[in-house]
UniProtKB/TrEMBL annotation:
UniProt keywords, alphabetically: Repeat
UniProt-listed Gene3D superfamilies: P-loop containing nucleotide triphosphate hydrolases
UniProt source species: Ilex paraguariensis
Name of the protein this chain belongs to: ABC transporter domain-containing protein
Entries under InterPro entries matching the protein: ABC_transporter-like_ATP-bd (IPR003439), ABCF (IPR050611), P-loop_NTPase (IPR027417)
Residue span(s) of domain ABC transporter: 39-88
UniProt cross-references to Pfam families, sorted A to Z: ABC_tran
Domain of life assignment: Eukaryota
């Protein structure tokens, strides 16, 4: 069963978005039934502040567009967010904003990543996929890396 066909039950909230998520246009907060200040504060938590939050999407850099996309994904407070290599094509500032957003996010995050900095800065629990099994790893990313190198 593909994730995009998964039907959330009344107790769950799942966001599924293609990795090439493209946001077009800009609606004011009142147009979507949300106070503008609440939207701006949420964007600000991902580093999209001041006049940057008012610019059309087509004028933003790739990293800035990614920040807006992550803000959009988390705005409705899903219970779990699935991320596949979320730091691909992000500049260092955008990765830092992503880490901050993930740390503040109140739901669960299932993330596949090879980005050591992203993993070390944003996870509090690691699971290792190896030889067809998934097992929890008690330790940090650096501990896991040391085990692999020994």
């Amino acid at each position: 069963m593909e994730l995009k066909n998964l039907k959330p039950r009344h107790t769950s909230s799942i966001f599924y978005g293609k990795q090439d998520l493209c946001l077009r246009g800009r609606k004011s907060g009142s147009a979507v039934g949300v106070p503008e200040q609440k939207l701006r504060a949420h964007l600000g938590s991902f580093g999209v502040t001041g006049n940057l939050a008012l610019q059309p999407m087509y004028t933003l850099s790739g990293g800035q567009k990614s920040r807006v996309a992550f803000a959009k994904i988390t705005f409705k407070k899903p219970h779990i967010v699935l991320l596949d290599e979320p730091s691909n094509h992000l500049d260092l500032d955008a990765v830092e904003a992503l880490i901050q957003g993930l740390v503040l996010f109140q739901g669960g995050v299932l993330m596949v990543s090879h980005d050591e900095h992203l993993i070390s800065g944003s996870v509090d629990q690691m699971w290792v996929v190896s030889e067809g099994t998934v097992t929890p790893f008690n330790g940090t990313f650096h501990d896991y890396k040391r085990i692999l190198q020994s």
